[in-house]
Design brief:
The protein starts with a strand and ends in a 12-residue tail after the last helix. The longest helix has 20 residues, at 308-327. The strands form two sheets. It has an eight-stranded mixed β-sheet with strand order 8-9-10-7-11-12-13-14. Strands 3-2-1-4-5-6 form a six-stranded parallel β-sheet, with helices on both faces. The protein is 34% helix and 28% strand. The protein is built from nine helices and 14 strands.
Length: 339
C-alpha cells in the first residue's frame, strides 16, 4: 500500500488550524507532518494543539525540509502565488487556498512554474470534491430538472473590523475575491461551460475601499448565473438551479454544517405536497475529502481536482466582473491560457 503524502502547512491562518488541518489529519492518504509561522511561538502552539510533529519559525525552513512532499498554502491572498512558487521551486506539490491569486497574470506565472518544475499545483475549492456537489452535477447532467437555464446564489457575512485581513484592500480583501469566487467556480462546474460575458456591480466601503457588496450576471451559452456577495450584510448562503422541468436547491452550499447531514432539495415544480424530494448526505469533512483526493493525485500521478488551467479561467471571470463594475458595460472574460 502506498504511503501517505507528508504535508507541511504554511502559516497558522484560521482556516488552516480550525478546518483544513484537522480535516486532513483524518485522511487515508494525507498526514500533516509540519507547520510554519513567521512567529515561531505561534507555530509551536499550533503544532502542540494539533499534534503536528514538527514546527518551524519561517516558511523557508519548512520548504527546506526534505521529508515534506506537499504544502498547503492558506496564507493571505496576496501571498498565495509568491509562496506557492517558492514551494514549487523547492520541489513540493502545492494545494493553495482560494483564490489562487489576485490577478490572472499572477496565476499564469504560477502555471509556468508548475510546468517547469513538474510538481502538482491546485486550488483549494473544497466544494468541488464534496459528494453533495458531485451528485448535484450528476443530477443536472442526467436531466433530472430538464435543461438547466438559471443559477442563483448568495454568500454573505457581516465584518467591519478594519484590522481583519478580509477588509484590507492591499492584500486582496473584499467580497468578490473572498466569496464571489465560489458561485463563479460552482456555476462553471455545473454548467461545464465558460461565461461569454459578465456584468458586475460593486459598492465599496468608503473607509477600507474593499468591495463590500458585489453582484454579477454571468452569461453562459446554456443559460445565466447571478449572485450577490457581501461583507456587511446578514450571514447567509444559498444556491439554486432552475431548469425547464424542475429546481434544485442547496442550503449552506459552501460551509457544510459540521457533524450534521446535508441535503439536496429537488423540486419538480408541480406545486404539490410531494413535489419536493430530499437527498440526504451523511456528514463528511470536506477538507478530509479534498486532502485525500489531492494526495491520491500525487501518489498516482493523476489530475488534481482544480488544476491551474481552471483557476486561471475562474480568475478571468473575477477580473471581468471588476472591469464591468468600472465600465458599466458587459465585459468578456479573457482566456489567457495561451498568452
Amino acid at each position: 500500500m502506498p504511503r501517505k503524502v507528508r504535508w507541511g502547512v504554511l502559516g497558522v491562518a484560521s482556516i488552516a488550524v480550525r478546518r483544513a488541518v484537522p480535516g486532513m489529519q483524518k485522511g487515508q492518504w494525507s498526514e500533516i507532518t509540519a507547520i510554519a509561522s513567521r512567529d515561531r511561538n505561534k507555530a509551536e502552539e499550533a503544532a502542540r494543539k494539533l499534534g503536528i510533529p514538527k514546527f518551524f519559525g519561517s516558511y523557508a525552513d519548512l520548504l527546506a525540509d526534505k521529508e515534506i512532499d506537499a504544502v498547503y498554502n492558506p496564507l493571505p491572498h496576496h501571498l498565495h502565488v509568491p509562496w506557492s512558487i517558492q514551494a514549487a521551486e523547492a520541489g513540493k506539490h502545492v494545494l493553495c487556498e482560494k483564490p489562487i491569486s489576485t490577478t490572472v497574470a499572477d496565476a499564469q506565472e504560477l502555471l509556468r512554474v508548475r510546468d517547469r518544475t513538474g510538481v502538482k499545483i491546485g486550488e483549494a475549492f473544497m466544494v468541488r470534491t464534496h459528494p453533495r456537489w458531485l451528485r448535484t452535477r450528476e443530477l443536472i447532467r442526467s436531466g433530472r430538472i430538464g435543461q438547466l437555464r438559471s443559477i442563483s446564489g448568495a454568500f454573505s457575512y457581516f465584518n467591519r473590523d478594519p484590522a481583519n485581513i478580509r477588509n484590507i484592500a492591499s492584500v486582496g480583501g473584499g467580497a468578490l475575491l473572498d466569496m464571489g469566487c465560489y458561485p463563479i467556480t460552482l456555476s462553471r462546474f455545473i454548467f461545464q461551460e465558460e461565461p461569454r460575458r459578465v456584468l458586475g456591480m460593486i459598492e465599496r466601503d468608503p473607509e477600507t475601499e474593499i468591495d463590500r457588496l458585489t453582484s454579477a450576471i454571468l452569461d453562459f451559452p446554456s443559460g445565466q448565473s447571478t449572485f450577490t456577495c457581501g461583507t456587511q450584510i446578514v450571514h447567509f448562503q444559498r444556491m439554486q438551479f432552475l431548469g425547464t422541468g424542475g429546481r434544485i436547491e442547496i442550503q449552506f452550499p459552501i460551509n457544510v454544517p459540521q457533524v450534521q447531514p446535508s441535503h439536496i432539495l429537488i423540486d419538480d415544480g408541480k406545486a404539490a405536497p410531494d413535489s419536493i424530494t430530499t437527498e440526504t448526505f451523511e456528514y463528511c469533512d470536506q477538507f478530509t475529502v479534498q486532502g485525500d483526493v489531492f494526495s491520491k493525485a500525487i501518489l498516482e500521478n493523476g489530475e488534481v481536482p482544480v488544476p491551474l488551467e481552471d483557476s486561471i479561467r475562474n480568475m478571468a471571470v473575477i477580473e471581468a466582473v471588476f472591469r464591468s463594475a468600472k465600465s458599466g458595460r458587459w465585459e468578456q472574460p479573457a482566456d489567457l491560457l495561451t498568452a
